[in-house]
Design goal:
Layout: H1 3-49, H2 53-62, H3 74-101, H4 107-128
Helix pairs in contact: 1-2, 1-3, 1-4
Amino acid sequence: MDDKTIEALGKLRKALETTERARGHLYSFHQLTGTADFELGDAVTALREAGHTDHANRVQRELLGRNVLPGRWTFQIVEDYDDMYHDVFRDVERAVRDDLADGERHGFEKQLKRERQRLSAAAYSEHTDR
């Protein structure tokens, strides 16, 4: 495989890895928002026990179980991201890699590893030959 193809596949792979990171942040958003909703439930209970029924009712009515986007909870956002973007991105990256690199992943990094280790071995050899 020529160097330009290896570099192009490396860029495509890096873009995929960036979407993986974004997806992780999206799952964090999903889990943190869900945790906050359960914490709101605790706050409602505490407000009621402290005698602040009107405030408890407002928090419950306006916040508890609220959609984060119109008609959407966070799990739906995660599912849509996976179905409409992430899965397609991964499939396209895999198809391009299969066609150009026989499915080999991280070809750019493998080439970089060989070069770096060669440089390291050469520097070590030069140092020990003195």
